[in-house]
User: What shape does this take?
Amino acid sequence: MKDHSTLEQKGNDPEANAQPEMISEAVSGVRSLRELIDRVMGKALYLPEIQEDSGIAELIPFPFLAIVNQYEMKMALLLALINPAMGGVLLIGPRGTGKTTAVRGLLDLLPLVPKSLCYYGCLPEDIETMGIDGVCPDCARKYAEGKPLAVMDRVRLGELPLNARLEDVIGGIDERAAVHHRLRLQRGILAQADRNVLYVDEVNLLDDDIVDALLNAAAQGSYTVRRGPVSATYRSRFILIGSMNPEEGNLRPQIQDRFGLRVIVRGLDNDEERLEAYRRVKAYMANPRSVAAQFRLETEVAREEIQLARELLPEVELPDEVAKLGLRWIKELGVDSLRAEITLFEAARAYAAADARQVVEPSDLKQVAPMALRLRKSAFMSDYLSQQEAEQAQLKFIMEKD
Ligand SMILES: [Zn+2]
Assistant: This one.
């Protein structure tokens, strides 16, 4: 079991003590990320008289933990940070439900990952899995000399602009090198997103070729670009987060299926919650720094918890009887896609890790199953299959007559 004692020590942090108004009851003695999220839900925000803003144009995201309710959306995004193998998240809902605010709020929660020091993106883990041939000759030499191949670096949050061209996305000829009659390829957005989070707002409005490139790269973890005589293969193991407003156009079912978790984001229907959300947004618009400061401690604890959960994840086991339960649900629902169980099990492992446990329990499956399994049933496929069955029966009937 991972040692969570650092959390308890947090309260004794001299820097935190220097600002007593920021110390919140929500974080004292928190044992896991899941517990923290539950507690912060009940936190009341202190709403001061509107103060003068400092006037510095600096991007301070609305604190993720200050978003009122929207539990499923928040949990899905945190699980994606804990376990990239889950296959990312698709947020589905009308405008103004805080989808983009939530994603941008992840900025303060991003974990540390090893980042390659090499152009080809070689990592020590490649040697662990593939041996010394798994890295480029330069890195093989560095490894032999005991030099580091990677440094720990914060995961970045990138956004794919809606007007991006395919060339921007996958990369293309380096125009500057071309001036000097050298043919060289330039990294695209997908290669830059390697090991990072890539957010695609309005993913349903992207061109089909871009969506295909995006999803293929995300699924395979690498992609190859060929331009005339030159080609290059790039790593692209990123956490994909998409959002869409179904009023503005549908997403092809086969694309929808390729996102791990699916969250239906609705507006808040409780009057008190709506009012609280309004107050918080108003306070943030007036003084983003003050609102961010009030959630600073919880945010730091959450970031640490996410890191701990990520480190715990490889040790989290899925017992056979729990897996069989999940498979039964999938079968009863009539979901064909194999991605259903991959996402269900990986999300449940992340959920157990977020709760600081090493064994997945049926209750973990229950928590993530709606997000992992909804919108996976293809109406086309079930119509197609029932037609097939009818035809099969008819064939049998025809043949049996003779
Ligand atoms: Zn290398």
The pocket of zinc ion is lined by residues 118, 120, 122, 135-136, 138-139 (CB under 6 Å). The chain has three domains: 1-69+274-313, 71-111+155-267, 316-402. Residues 71-111+155-267 form a domain with the Rossmann fold fold (CATH 3.40.50.300).
